[in-house]
Every structure is written in C-alpha cells, then in structure tokens.
Design a protein that fits this description.
Blueprint: H1 2-50, H2 56-63, E1 68-72, E2 78-81, H3 96-104, E3 106-112, E4 118-126, E5 132-140, H4 142-184, H5 199-246, H6 252-282, E6 291-294, H7 295-305, H8 307-312, E7 316-321, E8 325-328, H9 330-346, E9 353-361, E10 364-371, H10 393-399, H11 405-415, E11 419-424, E12 430-437
Parallel strand pairs: 7-9
Antiparallel strand pairs: 1-2, 1-5, 3-4, 4-5, 6-8, 9-10, 10-12, 11-12
Helix pairs in contact: 1-4, 5-6, 6-11, 7-9, 9-11
Amino acid sequence: MKRRILSYFMRMLTVAVALTMVLMALVTYGMFKTRMNEDLSVDAQVIRPLLESDDAGRVMEELSDALRVTVIAQDGAVRYDNRGDAAQMGNHLDRTEVAQALREGEGRDVRDSQTMETSTFYYAVRLEDGSVLRVAKEASSIWSIYLNALPLILLAMALMIAVSFFAAHLLTDRLVDPIRRLTADMDGEHSAASYPELQPFMRTIRSQHEEILRSADMRVEFTANVSHELKTPLTSISGYAELIESGMAQGEQAQRFAGEIHKSANRLLTLINDIIKLSQLDSPEHRIEREVVELGQIAEETVNQLRDSAEKMNVTLIADVKPGWISADKRMMEELIYNLCDNAIRYNVRGGSVCVEVRPVRERVLLVVQDTGIGIGREHQERVFERFYRVDKSRSKATGGTGLGLAIVKHIAAQHDAAIAVESELGSGTTITVSFERVMR
C-alpha cells in the first residue's frame, strides 16, 4: 500500500513539475514576444519621421546592425532596405505583416529560421502615402531558448523531484502509520487518533474483529455443549443396555430399563435433528424459498399437530387466528410455530394453557404465543434464544427439551427480517411475539 501510494504521488509530482516548467517557459516567451513587438512599434514611430529627413540614408546604415528597415510600395515592390538591394527583392504583398498593415494600418508576424535557432520579429505600419514601413529584429527562437536552458531546467526538475520524493515519503509514512499501528494493536485507542477520517474504518475493523472472536467463542462453547448433551443420553443408553446384557435386570425391571433406553434414544434423535437444523440455518449456502403464505392457517395446522403432546402434559392448547398473509418459507414457518408451541407446552404447569394467536395489525402480521407456565426471570430473558441455554435445566431434561428450540426460532425470524419480543414474569407465564411484514391481498 505504501509503495503504491508513493508511486502514484511521485508520478503526479513529476508530471506537475514538468508541466510547470513548460508553462513557465511559454509564459516567459510570451512576455518576451510582447516586449519585442512593443519595441518594434516604438522603433517604427521613431524612424517614420526620419524617412523624410536629409540624413535618412546615414541613419539607416547606422541601424543596420541592430534593426532592419524596409519600405514597401502599395503594389508590394520594395523601395528601400537597409540590409540589401531593394531591386533584387521580390514582391512583398504576400508577407503577412505587410498585407495586414495595408488592410488594417499595422501588422505583425514572427518567422523562424530554417535551423530553428533564431526567430525574426516583424512590425509594419502603413504610411500616409499608402506605402508600408517595416522594421524587424532577430532573436533566439523558443526552441533555442529551451535547448540552452535545458540543463538548468533538468537540474531544477531533479532537485524539485528529489525534495518532493522526500516529502512524499514522509507524508506516506504518516498516512500509513495509523493503519500499521492498528494491525499491531487492534484494541489501542491511539491507532485512530491521527486521522478522524480513518476512525469509522477502524471502528468497523474492531467491530468485525470482536464479532469474529465472539463467533469463535460461541463455536467452542457450542461444541462443548453438544458433546455434553450427547454424552448424557448415550451414557444412559449404555448403562441400561449393560444392565440388561449382564442379566442384572430381568422381567419388569428389564422392561423398564428398555423404556428408558427408548426414551434416551428419542432424546438423542431429537437433539441430533435440532443440531442439523441449526447447522443448515447457519450455512451460507442455505436459501429460503419464499412464497406468499397465510400464517393463520399454518398456525392452526401446527396447533392440531401438537394437541396430543399438550394433552399428555395436561395443557389446554387454543388457536385464535385471523388471516394474515406474509412472504415466507412455509416449511420454516411451520418449524418456528412448532418450536414456540412445544416450548410453551414443556415449560407449562399442570392444568395450564397455551394460546396461539395470529392477527394483522396495520402493515405487520403478529404471531403471539402465550402460556401460563413457570415464566422467565428478567435476568434470563435476553439469553433464552441462545443455544443450549435453559432457565430450568432439571425441568428441561425431565420434559425432553434440547435447549435448541428457541435458538432455531431466532434464526428463522432473522432470515425473514422478523422482530421478536419476550414478556414474562416468574410464576405468571410467558408471551413471545413475532412480528412479520404484511403482504396485502
């Protein structure tokens, strides 16, 4: 990164210095050209009255080294030239400055020599009799000036680039240093202090870093919990099977142990199925197949599936649903409602009730599962959706709960952009509300 920034910076500086040098040369030459034209104009005004004096010839000869003077007739014929034989000179009507002077009163032109080493500046003015007075001076051409000044220009450019390179190196170091310090110390506050513009970027990096660490911790904890949860029913199955195999359990006792093995095996299967579901929901390749579904109908069908489980627990299961259309994966909605109801039944009291309600409210559809169970303390309400988190572990094991039901609910709700709210008090039951975006029909 540092090398790339420095490279871009140096290229920009080199181009900028080169353009500055060329621009300065052009501006200087432009000023020189303007000054030459002004001087020639003054010379012409001085010479003009001398043409009618008796000393005109002598004056022109004295000017021959510094200034060329030419008088041209209206038809373009050269009447006089202080540096050559006028009779041998061709017609000058095609000369730019002469044509312009005849047309506008005065004219100017600059012509380079064949070798490009000199330039001749011409100024012409129309006289009262219609003829043209032209004065001219030679000077070094712009190319000659460039070539003569080239060593100095290159030296100046080299010095400027060297100084710029040193400055760019220091500035690049200062720019990159906070990022370098951030990589070395993700938690240090000094890293973001240099540039306010970098603070949002650094906060994002820190947030992602903390999220990765949290995710890693959760995976470690999840692995440990899975191992522990699998170990419990497997230990029971192994122990009871060993007793039966050794002949220590016979008759009714062997039958009871076989029932316990069956019960632990079912718990094991339920746990494995829940783990698989969570893994599928966590997978980046997992895709939800959305369609417009009627949530009230799904809730009513799911409640009917759970009536036998509710009767075994002596819990009354009630469905109070109204049509509510949402865009969702139907299978996942069945899973969400099933887990909420199953959890409400497991943690209820004998003779208690569970009410499942679906109702549209303005632009939302609310799914409400209310029970009269043992309730959840305030200190536990934020954590009940964590994997394997149980408020009452002994009750969970007794009822066969895996501790993953609400974690699955949270994942499904998140994938459908649904909000979850929990209201509960110990001994007074629990109400969980899931709010979905409504689809108008």
